[in-house]
Amino acid sequence: MFISDNWKDYELLYCGGGEKYERWGNVTLRRPDPQAVWPVVIDGNATSMDDLPKPNALYTRSDKGGGAWTKLKNFPSTWTIDYDSLGKKLTFRIEPTAFKHTGLFPEQASNWDFCGNLIEKAKAAGKKDIRILNLFAYTGAQTLACSAHGADEVVHVDASKGMIAWAKENIKLSGLEGNYVRFIAEDCMKFVEREIRRGRKYDGIIMDPPSYGRGPKGELWQLEDSFYDLVKLCTNVLSDDPLFFIASSYATGITAQASGQIFKLAIPDGKVEAEELMLPVSKMGVLLPCGQTARWSAK
Predict the structure, then answer these.
(1) Rounded-to-integer distance, Cα 208 and Cα 211, Å
(2) By the 8 A CB rule, do 294 and 247 touch?
(3) Which candidate, 34, 35, 38, places its Cα nearest to that of 16?
(4) What's the confidence (pLDDT) of residue 164?
(5) Element of type H or E holding 145
(6) How many degrees, rounded to 5, is the angle at CA 245 between CA 145 and CA 108?
């Protein structure tokens, strides 16, 4: 398991009955989570979310699709939280969206530390011009981490201009404006194909692809059908002396072990680890599964 248990500003307090109850800084949120398949159990007794202290806001799904946040107490529209990544302070803007998300996936923190540690070790060993490619990069948590830990260039690619703007704001909040980060608003697969033609190479690749999407020619694809092809395509932009390649997935059709086998087939040399991402539930003493990650690193 890859457990993200070094948080101070985030805490998963309770989960159960298909929901989770979290603290983001000083703000508490209650929202759906399909992996919370057990009841809320406190001191050995089953209870319900409705018996817990009232959160600042509650997200409920609509019968017509989507959903909305209901303000129950003082509820800011946006705020920030910090994370200490191996001594590097990362600051993120949090803003609950209409799709129940907040702009940050805290279970990914163990991946930020993993990449940051390898970058720092490579720098200490004298490696120069470390270039990292972050695909499907969302609001840029991994971009921040790699930049803060010393990557000479981070290329952040996401098809959403709104997410690019959010990532740029996180860069400023974290005091990383002076670092070399390129933001590319483009389809990730198209970008990789163009980088292959250009002969550009990267020492680390990070990706968190959606469960489904469209290919470079507009064709529909599902991740479980295309994951190997996507990973294999990206190996063409790995440098001759790469540090890492990591891919996360929230697609239910791909297990952690399946991801690991795909990595072993697509990148034969190196060390592969593939595990579920987990968050500790502080008031219940259990762990909540939050997707999975496959990690390749040089031996």
Answers:
(1) 9
(2) yes
(3) 38
(4) 98
(5) helix 141-148
(6) 45
